[in-house]
Amino acid sequence: MKYDSQKTQFIDFPETETPAVSIGIMIENVLSFFFNDEYIHVETGDFLVGEQRALLVNDKILFNGKLYKELYFEPVSKKASFALKEVTIGKGFHWERKEDQCFNGALDILITETGLLAINEIDVEDYLISVISSEMNATCSKEMLKTHAVISRSWLLAQIEKSRQLAQDHTQHIACYQDSERLIRWYDREDHSLYDVCADDHCQRYQGITKASTARVEEAVRETSGEILAHEEQICDARFSKCCGGVSEEFEHCWEPVHHPYLSAVRDNLTETTLPDLTREEEAEKWIRTTPDAFCHTSDQKILAQILTDYDQETPDFYRWKVEYTQAELSALFNQNMDGLINLGLIRDLVPIKRGTSGRIEELKIIGTCGSIIIGKELEIRRILSSTHLFSSAFVVDRLEVKGGIPGRFVLTGAGWGHGVGLCQIGAAVMSTQGHTYRQILSHYYPGAQIKKRY
Ligand SMILES: [Zn+2]
Ligand SMILES: [Zn+2]
Q1: Cα of 275 from ligand 1 centre, angstroms
Q2: Which ligand is the nearest neighbour of the Cα of 441?
Q3: What are the residue boundaries of the structural domains of the chain, listed by start?
Q4: Rounded to the nearest whole angstrom, what is the distance from the C-alpha of residue 199 to the centroid of ligand 2?
Q5: Apex 414 CA angle, 411 and 418, nearest 5
Q6: What are the tens digits of pLDDT across the range 155-193?
Q7: What's the CA-to-centroid distance between 203 and ligand 1, angstroms?
Q8: 188-246: pLDDT as tens digits
Q9: Ligand 2 mean position, distance from CA 182 (Å)
Protein backbone atom coordinates (compact mmCIF):
# COMPACT_ATOMS: atom_id res chain seq x y z
CA MET A 1 0.00 0.00 0.00
CA LYS A 2 1.30 3.42 -0.95
CA TYR A 3 0.61 6.32 1.39
CA ASP A 4 0.60 9.92 0.28
CA SER A 5 0.96 12.03 3.41
CA GLN A 6 -0.14 15.19 1.65
CA LYS A 7 -3.51 13.87 0.70
CA THR A 8 -3.95 11.40 3.57
CA GLN A 9 -5.30 8.56 1.52
CA PHE A 10 -4.21 5.09 0.66
CA ILE A 11 -3.99 4.16 -2.95
CA ASP A 12 -4.61 0.55 -3.65
CA PHE A 13 -6.48 -0.30 -6.84
CA PRO A 14 -8.17 -2.65 -7.08
CA GLU A 15 -9.20 -4.77 -4.14
CA THR A 16 -10.88 -8.07 -4.74
CA GLU A 17 -13.15 -8.28 -1.72
CA THR A 18 -15.95 -5.92 -0.80
CA PRO A 19 -14.74 -4.00 2.25
CA ALA A 20 -16.69 -3.73 5.51
CA VAL A 21 -17.70 -0.52 7.24
CA SER A 22 -18.10 0.02 10.99
CA ILE A 23 -20.88 2.35 12.08
CA GLY A 24 -21.20 3.85 15.57
CA ILE A 25 -24.88 3.47 16.51
CA MET A 26 -25.37 4.44 20.16
CA ILE A 27 -23.72 4.96 23.56
CA GLU A 28 -25.54 3.99 26.79
CA ASN A 29 -24.57 2.51 30.17
CA VAL A 30 -26.98 -0.36 29.53
CA LEU A 31 -27.50 -1.84 26.07
CA SER A 32 -30.50 -4.05 25.38
CA PHE A 33 -30.51 -6.01 22.15
CA PHE A 34 -32.22 -8.96 20.56
CA PHE A 35 -30.78 -11.58 18.21
CA ASN A 36 -33.51 -12.44 15.69
CA ASP A 37 -31.32 -15.29 14.41
CA GLU A 38 -28.31 -17.20 15.66
CA TYR A 39 -25.22 -15.14 16.55
CA ILE A 40 -21.90 -16.41 17.80
CA HIS A 41 -20.30 -14.68 20.80
CA VAL A 42 -16.69 -14.63 19.57
CA GLU A 43 -15.06 -14.32 23.05
CA THR A 44 -16.69 -17.54 24.32
CA GLY A 45 -17.80 -19.38 21.18
CA ASP A 46 -21.38 -19.54 22.52
CA PHE A 47 -24.33 -19.47 20.11
CA LEU A 48 -26.99 -16.97 21.15
CA VAL A 49 -30.56 -16.06 20.14
CA GLY A 50 -33.20 -13.78 21.68
CA GLU A 51 -33.07 -11.11 24.39
CA GLN A 52 -29.63 -9.87 25.60
CA ARG A 53 -28.35 -7.17 27.95
CA ALA A 54 -24.90 -5.67 28.48
CA LEU A 55 -24.13 -3.35 31.43
CA LEU A 56 -21.20 -1.09 32.17
CA VAL A 57 -19.93 -2.07 35.66
CA ASN A 58 -16.62 -0.76 37.09
CA ASP A 59 -15.11 -0.12 33.65
CA LYS A 60 -15.99 -3.63 32.47
CA ILE A 61 -18.89 -5.03 30.47
CA LEU A 62 -21.16 -7.31 32.48
CA PHE A 63 -22.75 -9.86 30.14
CA ASN A 64 -24.45 -13.14 31.12
CA GLY A 65 -22.85 -13.05 34.60
CA LYS A 66 -19.27 -12.49 33.41
CA LEU A 67 -17.08 -9.41 32.90
CA TYR A 68 -15.51 -8.54 29.54
CA LYS A 69 -13.36 -5.79 27.97
CA GLU A 70 -15.19 -6.03 24.65
CA LEU A 71 -18.06 -8.03 23.17
CA TYR A 72 -18.14 -9.16 19.57
CA PHE A 73 -21.08 -11.01 18.06
CA GLU A 74 -20.92 -12.43 14.56
CA PRO A 75 -23.96 -13.54 12.57
CA VAL A 76 -24.04 -17.26 11.73
CA SER A 77 -25.69 -16.61 8.34
CA LYS A 78 -25.57 -13.54 6.06
CA LYS A 79 -29.33 -12.97 6.45
CA ALA A 80 -29.17 -12.95 10.29
CA SER A 81 -30.27 -9.75 12.02
CA PHE A 82 -30.34 -8.20 15.46
CA ALA A 83 -32.32 -5.35 17.05
CA LEU A 84 -30.92 -2.58 19.23
CA LYS A 85 -33.47 -1.19 21.69
CA GLU A 86 -34.21 2.52 22.12
CA VAL A 87 -31.71 4.04 19.70
CA THR A 88 -31.87 7.85 19.75
CA ILE A 89 -32.71 9.30 16.33
CA GLY A 90 -32.05 12.93 15.30
CA LYS A 91 -29.97 13.84 18.36
CA GLY A 92 -30.39 17.51 19.27
CA PHE A 93 -33.04 18.17 16.63
CA HIS A 94 -36.72 18.83 17.25
CA TRP A 95 -37.63 15.38 15.91
CA GLU A 96 -35.40 13.58 18.44
CA ARG A 97 -36.97 10.30 19.58
CA LYS A 98 -36.08 6.76 20.62
CA GLU A 99 -36.74 3.82 18.35
CA ASP A 100 -35.83 0.12 18.21
CA GLN A 101 -33.65 -0.49 15.15
CA CYS A 102 -32.79 -3.59 13.20
CA PHE A 103 -29.42 -4.45 11.60
CA ASN A 104 -27.67 -7.14 9.55
CA GLY A 105 -24.02 -7.91 10.13
CA ALA A 106 -21.89 -8.02 13.27
CA LEU A 107 -22.36 -6.23 16.60
CA ASP A 108 -19.32 -4.93 18.46
CA ILE A 109 -19.61 -3.44 21.96
CA LEU A 110 -16.77 -1.29 23.30
CA ILE A 111 -16.17 0.60 26.54
CA THR A 112 -15.83 4.39 26.17
CA GLU A 113 -15.65 7.25 28.68
CA THR A 114 -19.34 7.98 28.23
CA GLY A 115 -20.73 4.43 28.24
CA LEU A 116 -20.98 1.31 26.15
CA LEU A 117 -20.65 1.96 22.45
CA ALA A 118 -22.60 -0.27 20.04
CA ILE A 119 -20.97 -0.59 16.62
CA ASN A 120 -22.49 -2.34 13.61
CA GLU A 121 -20.16 -3.88 11.03
CA ILE A 122 -21.47 -4.63 7.56
CA ASP A 123 -20.53 -4.92 3.93
CA VAL A 124 -20.10 -1.51 2.25
CA GLU A 125 -22.66 -2.33 -0.48
CA ASP A 126 -25.35 -3.21 2.11
CA TYR A 127 -24.61 0.02 3.96
CA LEU A 128 -25.09 2.00 0.73
CA ILE A 129 -28.46 0.37 0.01
CA SER A 130 -29.64 1.35 3.47
CA VAL A 131 -28.48 5.00 3.45
CA ILE A 132 -29.53 5.73 -0.13
CA SER A 133 -32.98 4.18 0.48
CA SER A 134 -33.56 6.45 3.46
CA GLU A 135 -32.04 9.57 1.89
CA MET A 136 -33.57 9.52 -1.57
CA ASN A 137 -37.18 9.59 -2.61
CA ALA A 138 -38.63 6.40 -4.11
CA THR A 139 -39.59 8.36 -7.26
CA CYS A 140 -35.94 9.15 -7.97
CA SER A 141 -34.74 8.28 -11.48
CA LYS A 142 -32.39 5.34 -11.94
CA GLU A 143 -29.49 7.47 -13.27
CA MET A 144 -29.82 9.79 -10.28
CA LEU A 145 -29.70 6.81 -7.90
CA LYS A 146 -26.65 5.44 -9.69
CA THR A 147 -25.00 8.87 -9.47
CA HIS A 148 -25.65 8.85 -5.72
CA ALA A 149 -24.44 5.31 -5.29
CA VAL A 150 -21.05 6.25 -6.79
CA ILE A 151 -20.60 9.43 -4.76
CA SER A 152 -21.79 7.85 -1.49
CA ARG A 153 -19.41 4.92 -2.04
CA SER A 154 -16.51 7.30 -2.82
CA TRP A 155 -17.24 9.41 0.25
CA LEU A 156 -17.54 6.31 2.41
CA LEU A 157 -14.30 4.66 1.26
CA ALA A 158 -12.44 7.97 1.58
CA GLN A 159 -13.94 8.32 5.08
CA ILE A 160 -12.95 4.78 6.09
CA GLU A 161 -9.36 5.45 5.14
CA LYS A 162 -9.39 8.81 6.88
CA SER A 163 -10.78 7.46 10.15
CA ARG A 164 -8.38 4.51 10.17
CA GLN A 165 -5.53 6.94 9.62
CA LEU A 166 -6.89 9.12 12.44
CA ALA A 167 -6.98 6.12 14.80
CA GLN A 168 -3.35 5.38 13.94
CA ASP A 169 -1.69 8.75 14.23
CA HIS A 170 -4.07 10.56 16.66
CA THR A 171 -3.75 13.83 14.74
CA GLN A 172 -6.06 16.61 15.80
CA HIS A 173 -7.56 18.39 12.81
CA ILE A 174 -7.55 22.14 13.04
CA ALA A 175 -10.92 23.53 12.04
CA CYS A 176 -10.92 26.94 13.67
CA TYR A 177 -8.86 30.08 13.98
CA GLN A 178 -9.83 32.84 16.31
CA ASP A 179 -8.42 36.12 17.59
CA SER A 180 -9.92 39.39 18.83
CA GLU A 181 -11.01 40.34 15.30
CA ARG A 182 -12.17 37.14 13.71
CA LEU A 183 -13.83 33.82 14.30
CA ILE A 184 -13.31 31.48 11.35
CA ARG A 185 -14.65 27.99 11.81
CA TRP A 186 -15.57 25.10 9.61
CA TYR A 187 -17.29 21.87 10.36
CA ASP A 188 -16.12 18.65 8.80
CA ARG A 189 -16.66 14.96 9.37
CA GLU A 190 -13.29 13.94 10.67
CA ASP A 191 -13.76 13.11 14.30
CA HIS A 192 -14.45 9.38 14.54
CA SER A 193 -11.60 7.17 15.68
CA LEU A 194 -13.40 4.13 17.15
CA TYR A 195 -15.49 3.51 14.02
CA ASP A 196 -15.62 4.72 10.41
CA VAL A 197 -18.89 6.65 10.34
CA CYS A 198 -21.68 7.50 12.78
CA ALA A 199 -25.36 6.73 12.13
CA ASP A 200 -26.48 10.35 12.38
CA ASP A 201 -26.79 13.23 9.90
CA HIS A 202 -23.24 14.24 10.88
CA CYS A 203 -22.07 11.47 8.53
CA GLN A 204 -25.04 9.86 6.75
CA ARG A 205 -28.26 8.84 8.45
CA TYR A 206 -28.18 5.05 8.81
CA GLN A 207 -30.98 2.92 10.23
CA GLY A 208 -29.83 -0.54 9.15
CA ILE A 209 -32.70 -2.64 7.81
CA THR A 210 -35.29 -1.00 10.11
CA LYS A 211 -37.04 0.34 7.02
CA ALA A 212 -37.36 -1.74 3.89
CA SER A 213 -34.90 -0.82 1.14
CA THR A 214 -36.18 0.21 -2.27
CA ALA A 215 -35.75 -2.28 -5.14
CA ARG A 216 -34.55 0.54 -7.46
CA VAL A 217 -31.87 1.53 -4.97
CA GLU A 218 -30.71 -2.09 -4.69
CA GLU A 219 -30.44 -2.22 -8.50
CA ALA A 220 -28.57 1.10 -8.70
CA VAL A 221 -26.07 -0.02 -6.04
CA ARG A 222 -25.62 -3.43 -7.66
CA GLU A 223 -25.20 -2.00 -11.18
CA THR A 224 -22.44 0.35 -9.99
CA SER A 225 -20.94 -2.15 -7.53
CA GLY A 226 -17.42 -1.19 -6.48
CA GLU A 227 -17.41 1.98 -8.65
CA ILE A 228 -15.88 5.10 -7.17
CA LEU A 229 -14.68 8.49 -8.34
CA ALA A 230 -10.93 8.79 -8.47
CA HIS A 231 -8.54 11.59 -9.28
CA GLU A 232 -4.88 10.74 -9.89
CA GLU A 233 -5.31 7.36 -8.16
CA GLN A 234 -6.93 8.98 -5.13
CA ILE A 235 -10.48 8.29 -4.04
CA CYS A 236 -12.40 11.52 -4.41
CA ASP A 237 -13.94 13.15 -1.37
CA ALA A 238 -17.14 13.51 -3.39
CA ARG A 239 -19.11 16.32 -1.75
CA PHE A 240 -22.64 17.28 -2.75
CA SER A 241 -25.30 19.78 -1.74
CA LYS A 242 -28.87 20.69 -2.65
CA CYS A 243 -28.43 23.59 -5.11
CA CYS A 244 -25.24 25.35 -6.22
CA GLY A 245 -27.04 28.51 -7.34
CA GLY A 246 -25.60 28.40 -10.87
CA VAL A 247 -21.86 27.93 -10.18
CA SER A 248 -20.38 25.39 -7.80
CA GLU A 249 -18.16 26.33 -4.87
CA GLU A 250 -14.57 25.23 -4.29
CA PHE A 251 -13.72 23.01 -1.35
CA GLU A 252 -11.22 25.38 0.29
CA HIS A 253 -13.78 28.16 0.69
CA CYS A 254 -15.95 25.92 2.90
CA TRP A 255 -13.47 23.68 4.72
CA GLU A 256 -9.75 23.34 5.26
CA PRO A 257 -7.66 25.41 2.84
CA VAL A 258 -6.65 22.57 0.52
CA HIS A 259 -7.41 22.62 -3.21
CA HIS A 260 -8.99 19.53 -4.77
CA PRO A 261 -8.97 19.92 -8.57
CA TYR A 262 -12.13 17.81 -8.95
CA LEU A 263 -13.96 20.17 -6.53
CA SER A 264 -13.34 23.36 -8.47
CA ALA A 265 -15.88 25.81 -9.86
CA VAL A 266 -18.29 24.51 -12.50
CA ARG A 267 -20.94 26.50 -14.33
CA ASP A 268 -24.09 24.40 -13.84
CA ASN A 269 -24.98 24.53 -17.49
CA LEU A 270 -23.72 22.77 -20.62
CA THR A 271 -24.56 25.46 -23.17
CA GLU A 272 -23.36 28.51 -21.22
CA THR A 273 -19.98 27.53 -19.82
CA THR A 274 -18.26 30.89 -19.20
CA LEU A 275 -17.44 31.29 -15.53
CA PRO A 276 -18.19 34.67 -14.00
CA ASP A 277 -15.62 35.72 -11.37
CA LEU A 278 -17.94 35.65 -8.36
CA THR A 279 -15.10 36.25 -5.92
CA ARG A 280 -15.37 39.89 -7.10
CA GLU A 281 -18.05 41.83 -5.25
CA GLU A 282 -19.65 43.56 -8.29
CA GLU A 283 -19.90 40.31 -10.27
CA ALA A 284 -21.32 38.44 -7.27
CA GLU A 285 -23.88 41.19 -6.72
CA LYS A 286 -25.02 41.09 -10.36
CA TRP A 287 -25.13 37.26 -10.33
CA ILE A 288 -27.12 36.92 -7.13
CA ARG A 289 -29.66 39.62 -8.02
CA THR A 290 -30.44 37.94 -11.36
CA THR A 291 -31.51 34.41 -12.28
CA PRO A 292 -29.08 33.08 -14.89
CA ASP A 293 -29.93 29.84 -16.63
CA ALA A 294 -28.66 26.69 -14.89
CA PHE A 295 -29.66 23.05 -14.46
CA CYS A 296 -30.71 23.75 -10.86
CA HIS A 297 -32.86 26.71 -11.88
CA THR A 298 -36.10 24.74 -11.90
CA SER A 299 -39.45 24.73 -10.20
CA ASP A 300 -40.57 21.42 -11.69
CA GLN A 301 -42.26 19.71 -8.74
CA LYS A 302 -41.76 16.24 -10.22
CA ILE A 303 -38.01 16.75 -10.35
CA LEU A 304 -37.83 18.42 -6.94
CA ALA A 305 -39.80 15.58 -5.37
CA GLN A 306 -36.96 13.21 -6.35
CA ILE A 307 -34.52 15.06 -4.13
CA LEU A 308 -36.48 16.83 -1.44
CA THR A 309 -38.38 15.22 1.38
CA ASP A 310 -41.98 16.36 1.85
CA TYR A 311 -40.95 18.83 4.50
CA ASP A 312 -38.34 20.41 2.25
CA GLN A 313 -40.81 20.90 -0.57
CA GLU A 314 -42.47 23.65 1.43
CA THR A 315 -39.52 25.86 0.47
CA PRO A 316 -39.37 25.97 -3.35
CA ASP A 317 -37.48 29.31 -3.63
CA PHE A 318 -33.96 28.05 -3.25
CA TYR A 319 -32.35 29.14 -6.51
CA ARG A 320 -32.83 32.77 -5.52
CA TRP A 321 -34.24 33.58 -2.08
CA LYS A 322 -34.90 36.47 0.30
CA VAL A 323 -34.78 36.79 4.09
CA GLU A 324 -35.79 39.95 5.98
CA TYR A 325 -34.86 40.98 9.51
CA THR A 326 -35.62 44.00 11.65
CA GLN A 327 -32.69 45.54 13.54
CA ALA A 328 -34.01 43.98 16.76
CA GLU A 329 -34.34 40.52 15.19
CA LEU A 330 -30.86 40.53 13.66
CA SER A 331 -29.09 41.79 16.81
CA ALA A 332 -30.97 39.22 18.91
CA LEU A 333 -30.00 36.40 16.51
CA PHE A 334 -26.38 37.47 16.55
CA ASN A 335 -26.18 37.65 20.37
CA GLN A 336 -27.94 34.34 20.81
CA ASN A 337 -25.92 32.45 18.21
CA MET A 338 -22.60 33.89 19.37
CA ASP A 339 -23.39 32.82 22.96
CA GLY A 340 -22.69 36.36 24.18
CA LEU A 341 -19.04 36.03 23.10
CA ILE A 342 -18.94 39.63 21.88
CA ASN A 343 -21.29 42.58 22.19
CA LEU A 344 -21.58 44.60 18.99
CA GLY A 345 -24.47 46.79 20.12
CA LEU A 346 -26.77 47.68 17.23
CA ILE A 347 -25.78 46.33 13.83
CA ARG A 348 -24.71 48.93 11.27
CA ASP A 349 -23.69 46.69 8.37
CA LEU A 350 -22.84 43.24 7.07
CA VAL A 351 -19.85 43.49 4.71
CA PRO A 352 -18.53 40.56 2.64
CA ILE A 353 -14.73 40.42 3.01
CA LYS A 354 -14.08 37.30 0.95
CA ARG A 355 -16.24 35.30 -1.44
CA GLY A 356 -15.71 31.88 -3.01
CA THR A 357 -16.20 30.86 -6.65
CA SER A 358 -19.99 30.44 -6.30
CA GLY A 359 -20.41 33.84 -4.66
CA ARG A 360 -20.71 32.22 -1.22
CA ILE A 361 -19.29 34.49 1.45
CA GLU A 362 -16.29 32.91 3.16
CA GLU A 363 -15.63 35.82 5.53
CA LEU A 364 -18.24 38.36 6.60
CA LYS A 365 -17.58 41.47 8.66
CA ILE A 366 -20.37 42.39 11.03
CA ILE A 367 -20.08 46.01 12.06
CA GLY A 368 -21.92 47.21 15.16
CA THR A 369 -22.14 50.40 17.20
CA CYS A 370 -19.82 48.92 19.88
CA GLY A 371 -17.37 46.97 17.70
CA SER A 372 -17.03 44.56 14.85
CA ILE A 373 -16.08 40.98 14.09
CA ILE A 374 -15.27 38.90 11.02
CA ILE A 375 -16.99 35.52 10.93
CA GLY A 376 -16.62 32.51 8.59
CA LYS A 377 -16.71 30.09 6.90
CA GLU A 378 -19.98 29.53 5.08
CA LEU A 379 -21.73 27.26 7.62
CA GLU A 380 -20.80 29.50 10.54
CA ILE A 381 -22.21 32.53 8.67
CA ARG A 382 -25.43 30.63 7.89
CA ARG A 383 -25.73 29.52 11.51
CA ILE A 384 -25.09 32.93 13.12
CA LEU A 385 -27.48 34.89 10.87
CA SER A 386 -30.48 32.58 11.29
CA SER A 387 -32.54 30.78 13.93
CA THR A 388 -32.09 27.62 11.84
CA HIS A 389 -29.58 28.08 9.01
CA LEU A 390 -29.66 30.44 6.04
CA PHE A 391 -30.06 28.57 2.75
CA SER A 392 -26.53 29.55 1.80
CA SER A 393 -23.89 32.19 2.43
CA ALA A 394 -24.16 33.50 -1.16
CA PHE A 395 -26.09 36.67 -0.44
CA VAL A 396 -26.08 40.44 -0.82
CA VAL A 397 -27.37 42.82 1.83
CA ASP A 398 -29.73 45.78 1.53
CA ARG A 399 -29.93 48.15 4.50
CA LEU A 400 -33.31 49.85 4.74
CA GLU A 401 -34.81 52.62 6.91
CA VAL A 402 -31.33 53.87 7.85
CA LYS A 403 -31.35 56.53 10.59
CA GLY A 404 -28.08 57.91 11.93
CA GLY A 405 -26.16 55.12 10.16
CA ILE A 406 -28.29 52.42 11.77
CA PRO A 407 -30.62 50.39 9.55
CA GLY A 408 -34.11 49.58 10.80
CA ARG A 409 -34.33 46.59 8.46
CA PHE A 410 -32.00 44.26 6.57
CA VAL A 411 -32.90 42.33 3.42
CA LEU A 412 -30.67 39.40 2.44
CA THR A 413 -31.02 38.29 -1.20
CA GLY A 414 -29.33 34.96 -1.77
CA ALA A 415 -28.52 32.15 -4.19
CA GLY A 416 -28.47 28.39 -3.78
CA TRP A 417 -28.96 25.93 -0.96
CA GLY A 418 -26.16 24.29 1.00
CA HIS A 419 -22.38 24.62 0.61
CA GLY A 420 -22.51 24.25 -3.18
CA VAL A 421 -19.35 22.11 -3.43
CA GLY A 422 -19.26 19.15 -5.82
CA LEU A 423 -22.49 17.72 -7.15
CA CYS A 424 -25.59 19.94 -7.23
CA GLN A 425 -28.41 17.51 -6.40
CA ILE A 426 -31.20 19.48 -8.00
CA GLY A 427 -29.09 20.17 -11.09
CA ALA A 428 -28.20 16.47 -11.30
CA ALA A 429 -31.86 15.46 -11.05
CA VAL A 430 -32.67 17.84 -13.93
CA MET A 431 -29.76 16.41 -15.97
CA SER A 432 -31.00 12.86 -15.40
CA THR A 433 -34.54 13.70 -16.56
CA GLN A 434 -33.01 15.28 -19.68
CA GLY A 435 -31.46 11.92 -20.52
CA HIS A 436 -27.90 12.35 -19.23
CA THR A 437 -26.30 9.19 -17.85
CA TYR A 438 -24.77 8.95 -14.38
CA ARG A 439 -21.31 9.01 -15.98
CA GLN A 440 -22.10 12.27 -17.80
CA ILE A 441 -23.56 13.78 -14.62
CA LEU A 442 -20.51 12.84 -12.56
CA SER A 443 -18.04 14.16 -15.12
CA HIS A 444 -19.96 17.46 -15.27
CA TYR A 445 -19.79 18.07 -11.51
CA TYR A 446 -16.36 16.56 -10.74
CA PRO A 447 -14.05 17.88 -13.46
CA GLY A 448 -11.09 15.61 -14.13
CA ALA A 449 -12.39 12.78 -11.93
CA GLN A 450 -12.75 9.28 -13.37
CA ILE A 451 -15.04 6.42 -12.49
CA LYS A 452 -12.96 3.43 -11.43
CA LYS A 453 -13.82 0.02 -10.17
CA ARG A 454 -12.37 -0.36 -6.70
CA TYR A 455 -13.38 -3.98 -6.10
ZN1 LIG B 1 -20.29 11.21 12.01
ZN1 LIG C 1 -26.67 23.79 -9.52
Answers
A1: 34
A2: 2
A3: 19-223, 245-419
A4: 28
A5: 135
A6: 999 888 877 777 777 665 667 878 888 899 887 756 688
A7: 4
A8: 756 688 999 999 877 888 999 988 888 899 999 999 999 999 999 889 999 999 999 99
A9: 30
